[in-house]
Amino acid sequence: MLASFARGHTYLQISRRLGITVATVDTYMRRVRAKTGAVNTAELVRLGLQLEWPVV
């Protein structure tokens, strides 16, 4: 999910690809921010691009 976000997909696009609600995507991204300490979108994108997981 983070890698998809880093590649420019919106929460709506991610939710449709995963079959979950936009609210769930938002919740997951808030959890990622909390666990990584990322305070802005740029930091999230940097982290997402470093992942070697396949983009969903």
Automatic annotation (TrEMBL):
<feature type="domain" description="HTH luxR-type">
    <location>
        <begin position="1"/>
        <end position="52"/>
    </location>
</feature>
<keyword id="KW-0238">DNA-binding</keyword>
<dbReference type="InterPro" id="IPR016032">
    <property type="entry name" value="Sig_transdc_resp-reg_C-effctor"/>
</dbReference>
<dbReference type="GO" id="GO:0006355">
    <property type="term" value="P:regulation of DNA-templated transcription"/>
</dbReference>
<dbReference type="Pfam" id="PF00196">
    <property type="entry name" value="GerE"/>
</dbReference>
<dbReference type="InterPro" id="IPR000792">
    <property type="entry name" value="Tscrpt_reg_LuxR_C"/>
</dbReference>
<dbReference type="GO" id="GO:0003677">
    <property type="term" value="F:DNA binding"/>
</dbReference>
<protein>
    <submittedName>
        <fullName>DNA-binding transcriptional regulator, CsgD family</fullName>
    </submittedName>
</protein>
<dbReference type="InterPro" id="IPR036388">
    <property type="entry name" value="WH-like_DNA-bd_sf"/>
</dbReference>
